[in-house]
Amino acid sequence: MKNKKRLTSVAPMLDWTDRHCRYFHRLISRHTWLYTEMVTTGALLYGDVARHLDFSGEEHPVALQLGGSEPADLAQCARLGEKWGYDEINLNCGCPSERVQKGAFGACLMKEFTLVANCVKAMKDAVSIDVTVKHRIGIDDIRTYSFVRDFIGEIAGAGCQTFIVHARNAMLKGLSPKENRKIPPLRYDVVYRLKKDFPDLEILINGGVETADQVEEHLKYVDGVMIGRAAYHYPWRMVEFDNRFYGDDSPARTPADVVNAMIPYIEKQLSLYGEKGLKMHGITRHMLGMMTGLPGARRFRQILSDPARLASGSPAVVLLEALSAVRF
Fold first, then answer.
1. Position 102 pLDDT exceeds 60
2. Architecture of 255-324 per CATH?
3. Coil, helix or strand for 163?
4. Is the pLDDT assigned to residue 324 strictly greater than 80?
5. Which residues form the active site (predicted)?
6. Which of 225, 239, 268, 315 has the most CB atoms in a 10 Å sphere around its CB?
7. What CATH architecture applies to the domain 8-246?
8. What is the 3-state secondary structure (H, E, C) of 131-180?
């Protein structure tokens, strides 16, 4: 595992932060923590474990986010995560989708302080790696500071030392997951206050962060910053994180470095998993925002998302053609 400090991290995002996305992001930043998509306990206990948990060693530090509410099931899945080599197990207490609510986990767990504490304790007892919790500052119309303060207090009592706080309420009814990321107002001051009240805990802030300058501002008040969709749509913004926040003076990779490094990775993945239905687009789709703002970025996106090219060309041919369209 690399730097233990979670100064910067990329949020778990369903259908986006799969292993190919994380490998790509790791080429851009050596130290930013990466999180899996949420994996439910049922998917691991009754499904294809390798499909959900396999990842490349280059991804470290990388955390497995679990969705569930049964302490015994979560403990078993946490053991699997540790066995597969993850650096952290994260419990999802922030997703507001109705599908997740029907499974009795996600943001609705914030109503059940003691249950979450029991889940954390069960996982802590099962593994030697960090167990963390990602949650909101409130649910529905509960906007009092005491609610989230008492939630963290009880979960910390079960042994959790790291909390990733999305600085919005989760509206369990009436808003879609997308609307839940935009409509409830951001209240960063609540997260800053949590750090003051729990100085010995590691408090990370999430929600609406898009630039390195914003990361730097938040780091004046909290221990780390988690970036969501901006990391996916504008991944190259992370290239300055290593030097700026981790003091790593190694030469930053260039866009050409990253594209060229992705070629052997894609070739290997297609050779290993192509028979299982993996297509080149399943990997290149994560790279589409890489050149945003540069001349030729639109052509870069077109080439990497062109079904005919992706189906007929080799990774080297397709990626180098896309790279040649960009003017630096």
1. no
2. Up-down Bundle (1.20)
3. strand
4. yes
5. 95 (proton donor)
6. 225
7. Alpha-Beta Barrel (3.20)
8. EEEEEEEEECCCCCHHHHHHHHHHHHHCCCCEEEEEEEEECCCCCCHHHH
Does 166 appear as a known binding residue? yes
Which strand (E) or helix (H) includes residue 204? strand 202-206
The tokens for 229 are: 């969709």
SS3 at position 246:
helix
Is the distance from CB of 80 to CB of 43 less than 8 angstroms? no
Instruction: For CA atoms 286, 290, 293, 299, give the dihedral sign.
Output: negative
Query: In the structure encoding, which two tokens stand for residue 279, read together?
Result: 């297509």
Q: Is 38 annotated as a binding residue?
A: no
**Domain edges within the chain:** 8-246, 255-324
Residues taking part in catalysis: 95
Same fold, 8-246 and 255-324: no
> Cis omega before residue 251 (within 30°)?
no
The structure tokens 């008040």 sit at 221
Residue-wise pLDDT for 236-286, tens only, equals: 999 999 999 999 999 889 999 999 999 999 999 999 998 889 999 999 999
Asked whether 69 and 115 are in contact (CB, 8 A), the reply is yes
The answer to whether the annotation marks 307 as part of a ligand binding site is no
Q: What confidence tier does 103 reach under pLDDT thresholds 50, 70, 90?
A: low
Inform me whether the pLDDT recorded for 51 exceeds 90.
yes
Angle at 216 between CA 211 and CA 218, to 5 degrees: 95
Q: Give burial (CB, 10 Å; 0-12/13-18/19+) of 35.
A: buried
- Alpha-carbon distance of 111 to 139, in angstroms, equals 8
Q: Rg for the chain (alpha carbons), in Å?
A: 20
pLDDT in the model for residue 175: 82
CB atoms within 10 A of CB 209: 23
Instruction: State pTM to two decimals.
Output: 0.95
